[in-house]
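Q: I'm writing up a methods section and want to include an example of the input and output format. Could you take the sequence below and give the corresponding predicted structure tokens, formatted cleanly so I can copy it straight into the document?
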Amino acid sequence: MAVHEGFEARDVMETTTIKCDNCDADLKYKSNSVEYRLVLVSESKNARPGIQSYTDMMNYPSIDSKKHFCGLRCLGKWVPKQDFRGKERVGRIGPVGDAV
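A: Here is the clean output for your methods example:
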């Protein structure tokens, strides 16, 4: 922990919150013995083994950061509110010369 001039270590505190991206419910702590939250993440794929060359494409992830939801119901309500136009590719290209 970095201590800045004029501040003591006990004066510096960081708080992390996890809220549903649809309904804003607090998802950090559970209220029942077993409780889960749904996390949506955009990840890039690895290259296939043995394939050396790919065509570069501008492919923007459909989400800009990790999203949290109470469950499938909140995810289902969140999706229609999003504007994904221009962020997903229509077709995809595999190894050079192979249209997929």
